[in-house]
Amino acid sequence: MYQIRSYMRRQGHMFPAQKRALAELWQDYGITVEGELTPDALFGRHAPLHLEIGFGMGDALLEMAGSHPENDYLGIEVHLPGVGRLLQRLQQREITNVRIDRRDAIEVLKYLPTQSLAGVYLFFPDPWSKKRHQKRRLVQAAFIEQLRQVLKPGGLFHATTDWDDYARHMLSVIESTDGFVNRAGPGNFHPRPEARPLTQFERRGLQQGHEVRDLIYQRI
Question: What angle do CA 4, 85, 138 make, to 5 degrees?
Fold first, then answer.
């Protein structure tokens, strides 16, 4: 059986400032514990916990955390340049309600307590566009079942993609899974929420004429 991963194996170039941030700031923001995660212990308080899977260069996560200091945010990213860049910017803006995990999301979800998340965000995941690779797409029935377990009733799963085939794939998978209701109505994509940060990745895609699809589902 093929084991789904939440990422493609690749590492980009790290600038000296990103390397320095990773070396100096990881102890403040990084998760080093193995096994079950205890959100209150990670953040030193009890607050609504939100998760972004694959935060890339950290644009959306930074804006969400900065705009909502009443929430806590866990970001998952395996690619070091993005981690280093986010660490830099968190320090510059003195944002303290973020923790970063560099493990694969499938593993992290196993270690989160049941019904511990208020929201999960999956912005522009790898579409694995070639047909022979589509089995590698993260959004599959087993992944959605993992989300159902860790999301609180009323919690939201928000996914976006600029790849139409993947958008329809996600729609089909989630609509076929028990435990979620489509906030836009059965079979519909959601209008772009104003609150969703516009990242550099999305801005480039829009300039190239890509249509971005949003899917928002509520755990019931």
Answer: 15
Q: Are 81 and 12 in contact (CB under 8 A)?
A: yes
Cα–Cα dist 95/116, whole Å: 22
User: Who contacts 62 (Cβ-Cβ below 8 Å, separation ≥6)?
Assistant: 86, 89, 90, 93, 95, 98
- The first and second tokens of residue 211, run together, are 């249509």
| Active site residue ranges | 126
Count of domains in the chain?
1
HEC-encoded secondary structure of 181-196: EECCCCCCCECCCCCC
Q: Say which CATH number the domain at 71 has.
A: 3.40.50.150
* pLDDT digits 0-9 by tens, 34-64: 889 999 999 999 999 999 999 999 999 999 9
Q: What is the pTM of this model?
A: 0.91
- Beta bridge partners, 160, equal 123, 214
19 found inside a domain: no
